[in-house]
Amino acid sequence: MRLFTQVFILSAVLVLPGAAAAQPMIQSQEGIALQNEIEQLQSQVQQLQSNTLNNGGSVLGGNAPPPPAPEQNSGPVAGGVVTSLLTQVQQLQAQVQTLNGEVDTLQNQVTTQNAQTQKEIGDLKFQMSNGAPGAATMGAAPGAGPGATAAPDQPQSLTPPAASAPQAAAPMVSGDPKTQLHAALEAYAQRNYATSAAMAEALVKNDGQAPEAYRAQYLVAQSQDAAGNAQDAAIAYDNTYNLNRTGAYAPQSLLGLASSLHAIGANDEACSTLSSLNSQFPTPPAGMQPRIDQVSKAAHCQ
Fold it and tell me: pTM higher than 0.85, yes or no?
């Protein structure tokens, strides 16, 4: 009877109504493993309870036949098993709560870091748009923007192409957004960066809800970057990222933004942007990590 009482108490602790609902959802692999272990312990307790009930007695006090005489020392051994199970459950629950606290702390750090980065970028955009004295002197020379040698759909690199002669912007292409984007990409491939930027900006302005607008906004940043307009490139990369922070070009936009900020001498903001990139995209697209390390080293990030 003592064994059944201990098993019943442990079972009640494990299956208390609302106990599962009171615990936050664990996203990590370690948290999931702990929850699986708790479920296994619950299954063991339920099996012990079932065995106890089958051997005699009833929760409702029925007329089941009396249990056979227990073997010598069986009571203490069974009681030790139940006590051990209860201790393991309490330890696992404590570990789950600790993991929940760590997850909340990390999430708060990422949120605070992103907010700080966006504030710094906003301040820089305000200074550049109002012609701050330091901003004009920190601009990169034409052709020195990062990523000029990359293909239109690839992340930016830090090696510039040979400077091309300025070209007059071509007339805007009429037609649907897909046709306009294709023409802008063609101009970029021909290193007519002023034309590709103008075409892409027109598409974003006139058809901002079109699926092609996101790619066009990234092309604006690429074109300004390749032309060596670091200030305009920084703003365009930031606009691309804010347009879709989980989109296909979000990691590349953060990298381009960090590189452009470094080009205008804003190394602290560049390092903050790289920190956000590493937090949000710990596994960046293939080929990006060497460029991330290059910008980090150039900006003297810790």
Answer: no
